Amino acid sequence: MTAIEFHPRIIENKDWATVLFMVSFGLIVLTRSLFENRFHDFIRIIISDKYLKIYKESNHLMGGFTIFLFTTNLISLTFFIQLIFHHLGYGLKTDWVLFVQIFTFLTIFILSKFLVERIIATTFGIEEIIEGFNLQKVSFRTYLGVLLLPITLVLYYNDILTDSLLYALITILLVINILTYLFSLKMYQNLIISKLFYFILYLCALEIGPYYFLYYWITKLRG
User: Fold this and answer.
1) Is the whole model's pTM more than 0.90, yes or no?
2) CA Rg, the chain, in Å?
3) What is the overall mean pLDDT for the chain?
4) CB of 135 within 8 A of CB of 114?
């Protein structure tokens, strides 16, 4: 008599991811509708500095425009990191619990870093530099997150992520971030020179240190 063995059929649930992708694109559409002129200037940020000149005041950093696109950026970046974890064998891209963990960590990390930056900027008397510096970082990184969203969408629903593609994407992200720093340094070079010592301390403590420890933690995890 032939023995019959039953094997559970595992079906990956991607409904939660589909909802989040729809929410992200919905936030972009909503932002474009509510802030049409600003959004038009924003999407041209890589070819024109008009957006940075008009919206350079710190109060724009906490407005609805920034919050909507920042949320989209967080979702996009979380999906990208989860895809990296999946590719390296540290998790599943369909694991919504892992998504929540990454999203929560990113949110706490970014907001905590921002709060500490404001405290240190006030202590060192370099508020004007840091406020402008932060606004430019948020603007460029949010723009990058919006561009990354359709890429993560394609990679999530298609198993086409290879080592070469992964390293290429990470390299492009790093290069763009470095260029963002250089652009900001050039724009505020006169103010930075007058507060050079404090600005160097700021860079070491909050721009280099946290990412170094993140890199160290990830390499230890892989080891």
Assistant:
1) no
2) 20
3) 79
4) no
